[in-house]
Structures are given as C-alpha cells and as structure tokens.
Task: structure prediction
Amino acid sequence: MKIKRTERGWAGHFICAHMCRFRRNTMLECGYLRIVISTVGGMKTSRGFETIGCDRHYETMVFHAAFDGEFWDADVEREIDLSSPWSLPDLDMENEANDMHETAVGEILTRIEAGEFTP
Result:
C-alpha cells in the first residue's frame, strides 16, 4: 500500500509545546493506519530557555493517531518506541533536531513497510 506523508502546522505532543520555538509534526497514513511523529524543543519561558525533560532541549516522540472530532492527532496512550536517537542535550541544535525528526520518520516508514503496525 502507498504511504501518505503529511507535514502539519502544529506540535504533535508536549503540554508546553506552545512555548517551543521548534515544532515538527508529521503524520504517516497507510490504509487505516495513522502514525504521528512529533519533535519539539527550544522551549523559552519567562525565565529563559529551559529543558523539556531530563537533560534534553529537543525530543522526538511517536504515537498511533486517534481522531479527536476534528483532526487525527497523537494518542499519547499509544506511544511507539524508536530505535533511532530521540533526544538532544543542547539548545543550539535546531539542525540536528530537524535531522533527528527526519530519521524518525524514515524509521517509522521502514517499519510500516515491514508490516509491523496495525491500525
């Protein structure tokens, strides 16, 4: 089956994503299967830049998608583990965060093609 890739204009996860200067959200669709790959980071608060988790300024997470009444979005109760790198420790790593996101998308594409996931 053909896999459809859609780049979306909002963060796919993280409650403080609205404070992140870096946000990527890619949805992959194959038949009834929908998976969201989300990368966020570069979070700026009133106190300055802060980590978004333990020792990381950027992170990529992957989830099966669920329909929320308007959009297909990340179902945070159905996370998918990545074997590729998913976090970056330093603030000035925007290019690396973009590469990390693309690597995660590539990994999930390969796994979809291998038939690993069911809707």
